[in-house]
Amino acid sequence: MAEPIPRQSVPDHVFDRLREEILTGRYRPGDRLPSQRALAADLDVNMSTIREALGRLEQLRLVEVRHGNATRVLDWRKSGGLESLVLHGGGPGEPLFVDLFEARRLLLVESARLAAERRNDEQSGALLRLASAVALGGDAERALLADWEFMAALVEAAGNLVFQLVMNSVRELYLPRAQAFAALVSGLDELVPLYVQTALAVAECDGEAAARAIARLTAAQEARLAG
Questions:
Q1: How does residue 140 score in pLDDT terms, banded at 50, 70 and 90?
Q2: pLDDT, tens digit, for every residue of 28-40?
């Protein structure tokens, strides 16, 4: 490993570095991590910090810690969850984020269908207001936040708890680096009618129209990211 860990927020730094090295493939599934003593020496930290970091990695199902034996790296694609990737590096062109926005589109299309069927009047009104808020977003930062709030409200109106929990994980991946995704709200004049069409279709209980509108919106956003 490289230079010693800075003293500020030492356990977080150790955890982040080890997780990054697992997610980027420096340590591959089945590999044995160095011993706790070796890791402590390499990173210039104490053993309790290493144990805490390994415990957090184990909770995320990135490693298997066997007391008195080696710590082995798990195949996080099979054992992990979205929370494993929170704060992982990368940007719009990275495979993780290509997959993330593809999943976002598919989730939102089904959410739109369900929202048209299940929404209450309050949720319907909120979607209409949020669609207008996107148009008034102004700068990219505000427009991105308005976009997020609209999509989150759509998923909430769908009334599917698992969809909401997935959206929570997406939020933790996306919002901390939202500025990297300013392209999502570029050419906003072309996108705003699609927010409005989605909200109106949900209000009118037209699931297929809502699904078509949100599919067009999210596909256009993905194209802007790829652009």
A1: confident
A2: 999 999 999 999 9
State the DSSP code for 63. E
For residue 5, what pLDDT is reported?
A: 47
190 and 101 Cβ atoms separated by less than 8 Å: no
Vertex 93: Cα angle to 213 and 148 (nearest 5): 40
**Locate tokens 């790296």: which residue?**
73
10 Å Cβ neighbour count for 182? 16
Residue in this structure with the two tokens 């989730």, named with its chain if needed: 107
What does the domain layout of the chain look like in residue ranges? 10-80, 90-226
Between CA 181 and CA 186 the distance in angstroms is 10
Quick: pLDDT tens for 163-183. 999 888 888 777 777 777 888
- Assigned superfamily of 90-226: GntR ligand-binding domain-like (1.20.120.530)
- For 205-214, write each residue's pLDDT tens digit: 999 999 999 9
Structure tokens at 70: 């080696």
Q: Which fold has domain 10-80?
A: Arc Repressor Mutant, subunit A (1.10.10)
**Tokens representing residue 195 in the block:** 């927010």
Kindly calculate the radius of gyration of the chain based on its CA atoms and give it in whole angstroms. Answer: 21
CA distances from 145 to 5, 85, 216 (A): 34, 21, 20
Residue 66 tokens read as 């066997």
Q: How far apart are CA 10 and CA 14, in angstroms?
A: 6
Please give the model's pTM, rounded to 2 decimal places. Answer: 0.74
